[in-house]
Design a protein that fits this description.
The complex is a heterodimer of chains A (111) and B (113). Chain A has 111 residues and is an all-beta fold. Chain A is built from no helices and 11 strands. In chain A, strands 2, 4, 5, 9, 10 and 11 form a 6-stranded mixed sheet that branches. In chain A, strands 1-3-8-7-6 form a 5-stranded antiparallel sheet, with no helix packed on it. Chain A is globular, with a radius of gyration of 13 Å. The mean pLDDT of chain A is 93. In chain B, strands 2, 4, 5, 6, 9, 10 and 11 form a 7-stranded mixed sheet that branches. Chain B has a 4-stranded antiparallel sheet with strand order 1-3-8-7, with no helix packed on it. Chain B is globular. Classes of the chains: A mainly beta (111), B mainly beta (113). Chains A and B meet through strand 4, strand 5, strand 9 and strand 10 of A and strand 4, strand 5, strand 9 and strand 10 of B.
């Protein structure tokens, strides 16, 4: 069974601070996706990383895929209250479109 | 363009009953996946369908079944409901391509009493 562990599980920081969320596994994935989910809604795709070592930036969000394609990180610069939500990483396996989701990081940005 | 739609949005059932949840994918998408998200956890894969054929099944009991119709919409059926089936049921529409990005609907919140 493939598992994706996210850390921290909960994070509460002041507006304007920086933060990093980690997604780790002992398994290799062909790609990794990051989602943000608001209460009562489905996850919304933020980014997909495919190549080991890949870095993608989405405004204040920076996503990195580990060289071995087993882990990923999400860094947010100058957090805003609108960044509040549940952040989920999800790995896709070679030849299998099933997504394995991480345990989630619940982020709260305090004004 | 409409995104992924799911119905109903909320549902309350009692133990032993059955339930049918419905999903319509994004126009042009031929593949649908179903996930169960228990409160406080990440979604767990239940089924994937492509062109009406089952392509994958997660670790769920036979009480869970699904099908996909010629218009690519899908139904998830759960029989003999248990309290532990209470969850948000998510449907994802697959884009395809190099990295299979999945676009999720708003989900159906099922409560089993």
């Amino acid at each position: 069974t493939q598992l994706l562990e996210q850390s921290p599980q909960f994070l509460s920081i002041q507006e304007g601070e920086n933060l990093t969320v980690y997604c780790n596994s002992s398994s290799v994935f062909s790609s990794l996706q990051w989602y943000r989910q608001e209460p009562g809604e489905g996850p919304v795709l933020l980014v997909t990383v495919v190549t080991g070592g890949e870095v993608k930036k989405l405004k204040r969000l920076t996503f990195q895929f580990g060289d071995a394609r087993k882990d990923s990180s999400l860094h947010i610069t100058a957090a805003q209250t609108g960044d509040t939500g549940l952040y989920l990483c999800a790995g896709e396996n070679f030849g299998n479109e099933k997504l394995t989701f991480g345990t989630g990081t619940r982020l709260t940005i305090i004004p | 363009d409409a995104g992924v739609t799911q119905s109903p949005t909320h549902l309350i059932k009692t133990r032993g009953q059955h339930v049918t949840l419905r999903c319509s994918p994004i126009s042009g998408h031929k593949s649908v996946s179903w996930y169960q998200q228990v409160l406080g956890q990440g979604p767990q894969f239940i089924f994937q369908y492509y062109e009406k054929e089952e392509r994958g099944r997660g670790n769920f009991p036979d009480r869970f079944s699904a099908r996909q119709f010629p218009n690519y919409s899908s139904e998830l059926n759960v029989n003999a409901l248990l309290l532990g089936d209470s969850a948000l049921y998510l449907c994802a529409s697959l884009k395809g391509g190099e990295a299979n990005e999945q676009f999720f609907g708003p989900g159906t919140r099922l409560t089993v009493l």
